[in-house]
């Protein structure tokens, strides 16, 4: 018997990742915009402001291209370049992260399963369809179509209502501290932070559980000690000491 009545997951960079040839996509965007290429994808990503804005992805990317153009002394229309990047991107080119299918199966054995993504349905559906997720989960909430997105409580409340479970009995798994962990906390769900590296620390956030791979979710759902070495209701062994949060 699982300690949770339901499990839900973030989508991007939690269950799946883009499966593009990033270098080819980057060059195609410049071709589409009729601009001589400059910079590299590895230079662009650090210039973006946090997670993508589902309401204005072109503006979000455009700000990054504007900074990159300034660094390379180029006079271009960054919004047109960002629009070209969006036009050539194929949202269906996604792949499950390692352990994702096993985590989904373990979650389904424990109870209803949900997905909560900050993106709108018209953008995220191609990923859902490509992954076959619609047949594997009981509810999908597209917070990008709601008045408030993560980390606000509303999308999580929609999720637990769709799954017909209480918030405190629901585990939410996500890779973002400021969106997934904070949002789950605000709505009363338990959180499992999927960190990118074992060296990453939660900082000011206090996830209930910390996992380094989705392969750990099955153990975390099992009754008794979880994958993070904690008893139900106990402190996670991999979280920061209280005074450093």
TrEMBL record:
It comes from the Archaea. Its cofactor is Mg(2+). GO terms for molecular function: hydrolase activity. The keyword Metal-binding does not apply. Keywords: Hydrolase, Magnesium. Residues 221-245 are annotated as: Disordered. The keyword Cytoplasm does not apply. InterPro entries: HAD-like_hydrolase (IPR051400), HAD-like_sf (IPR036412), HAD-SF_hydro_IA (IPR006439), HAD_sf (IPR023214). Belongs to the HAD-like hydrolase superfamily. This is HAD family hydrolase.
């Amino acid at each position: 018997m699982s300690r949770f009545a339901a499990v839900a997951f973030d989508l991007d960079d939690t269950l799946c990742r883009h499966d593009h040839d990033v270098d080819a996509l980057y060059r195609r965007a410049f071709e589409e915009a009729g601009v001589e290429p400059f910079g590299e994808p590895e230079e662009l990503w650090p210039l973006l402001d946090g997670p993508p804005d589902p309401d204005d992805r072109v503006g979000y990317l455009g700000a990054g291209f504007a900074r990159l153009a300034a660094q390379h002394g180029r006079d271009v229309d960054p919004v047109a370049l960002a629009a070209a990047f969006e036009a050539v991107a194929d949202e269906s080119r996604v792949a499950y992260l390692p352990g994702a299918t096993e985590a989904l199966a373990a979650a389904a054995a424990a109870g209803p399963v949900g997905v909560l993504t900050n993106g709108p349905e018209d953008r995220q559906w191609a990923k859902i369809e490509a992954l076959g997720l619609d047949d594997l989960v009981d509810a999908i909430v597209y917070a990008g179509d709601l008045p408030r997105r993560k980390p606000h409580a509303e999308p999580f409340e929609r999720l637990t209502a769709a799954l017909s479970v209480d918030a405190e009995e629901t585990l939410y798994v996500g890779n973002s501290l400021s969106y997934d962990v904070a949002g789950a906390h605000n709505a009363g769900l338990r959180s499992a932070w999927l960190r990118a590296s074992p060296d990453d620390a939660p900082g000011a956030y206090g996830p209930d559980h910390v996992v380094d791979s989705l392969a750990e979710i099955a153990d975390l759902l099992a009754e008794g000690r979880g994958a993070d070495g904690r008893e139900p209701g106990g402190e996670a062994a991999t979280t920061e000491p209280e005074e450093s949060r």
